[in-house]
Amino acid sequence: MHIGVMGHQGLSDITEMLVRGELWKLVTGYQTYGLVGVSPLGGGPETWFAEAVLEHGGTLEVLGDPAAPPAALMRQARAVHRLAPGLDPADSLLDLVDELVAVWDGLPGTPVAEAVAAAEARGIYVHRVWPEGSGRA
Q1: What residues does each domain of the chain span?
Q2: Residue 74 to residue 17: CA distance in whole angstroms
Q3: Distance (Å, rounded) from C-alpha 89 to C-alpha 91?
Q4: CA angle, residues 40, 103, 85, in degrees to nearest 5
Q5: Residues 65 and 83 sit within 8 Å (Cβ to Cβ)
Q6: pLDDT tens for each residue of 72-128
Q7: DSSP E strands: which ranges in 10-135?
Q8: CATH for 2-129?
């Protein structure tokens, strides 16, 4: 099962704690055999998800060329999918996954909202993660 992640950046400290808990609960609902997390390794939720997948015993694939990737996560990645210039990162992510985790406040007009709409149009199941009490910093 390949599960991708996209999420808002710049979340509050309390939101980090809440989201990390929800991501852990979601990830541990899967068997480790065949669990592959696909992440662009942007800051915040995309990195937290990757950490949860690895801690649970799954494997990690990185999408794109992260600006400042966490070295430990890059060393543990089984693959890095580089993007050709002009390719849409969200579409490329959706090409690689069976399900999408969206750490998203539900508001339209953001890259995460667009990725959710594209995933649903393709029939990809979307896990929405935005625990009560969450907010942006």
Answers
A1: 2-129
A2: 23
A3: 6
A4: 30
A5: yes
A6: 999 999 999 998 888 999 999 999 999 999 999 999 999 999 999 999 999 999 999
A7: 36-39, 59-63, 79-81, 99-103, 125-129
A8: 3.40.50.450
